[in-house]
Structure of Acyl-CoA thioesterase II domain-containing protein:
Amino acid sequence: MDDQGQAEHEQISTSLEVEKLDTTLFRSKSLWLPIRGRGVFGGQVISQAVVSATNCVDPGFGLHSLHCYFLLSASPAIPILYHVEKLREGRSYTTRSVKAVQNGRVVFILLCSFQRPEPWQPSHQWPMPANVTPPEQCILEETRYEKLASTEDMKPKLRTVFLEYADERRRSPVAVKAVPDPGRTSADFPSVHMWWMKAKNIPKYEAPFQKAILGYMSDLHFIGVAATTLGLKRMSKGPDALAMMSTLDHSIYYYNDSFDCGDWLLYVILSPTAGEGRGVVHGRMYTRSGKLVAIMTQEGVVRADRRDPQKEQMKSKL
């Protein structure tokens, strides 16, 4: 791997694979730096940490939640070491922590909990949004970028950017389709964004690896909804230009063990608040049949291209 990173693997199993070095020590085999990304794709780090932790847990327990912090941007040029610590061994729940280390520095930490299944307990869920355009009627992201690139009077620099994104999405192990004009689910949630996602060409993996794949997918398009809700734009200039976007923390709650990431999952995302250079997003992921399988929350740095007025005023006085 060079300092510029490498292409995203076409197989999700390759992207998530880690090498076992010791009982509780694992090492990444590949790392992907997205185009114009600040560091290794966060979803890949989450998933590799989940795979590492799962390898250190009795298979009778299933992952039900994870909470993580991104501390430093990881380089794709150096493998990440995942140190798993066994924090608690209970009869119903067991807990693990994972420290991701690169160049002697902790770049990421994960706390995750596993539960012995209790399917006989009562349950409820929020319903899947109504009248969602099915995936068969939505277009792939690479197709959308190609159409944008072919727009008349498109600036050469922007055309190059769109074609780069199209190529990256085409080689991705995850197929993504935006749901056109998702509209409002209620007056309380005026800006809802939805995507259909699925892992390409995968066999019927068992639940533990399906959950790791979902962790990878959950970081796609997530914090970007906060920027979009604020009206910030990429590749733009002025006070509404997006100057920086980076994940701070990420949480997932799993509520199903029978979903298949090889079939389309609907990712419903909204941003309840943003300010102080930060934004929060909430996500729900449903199967095609409407089963709610996971809840996600993320906070990230979301900065517009604006300066602190007090500092600017001080400069003007000098």
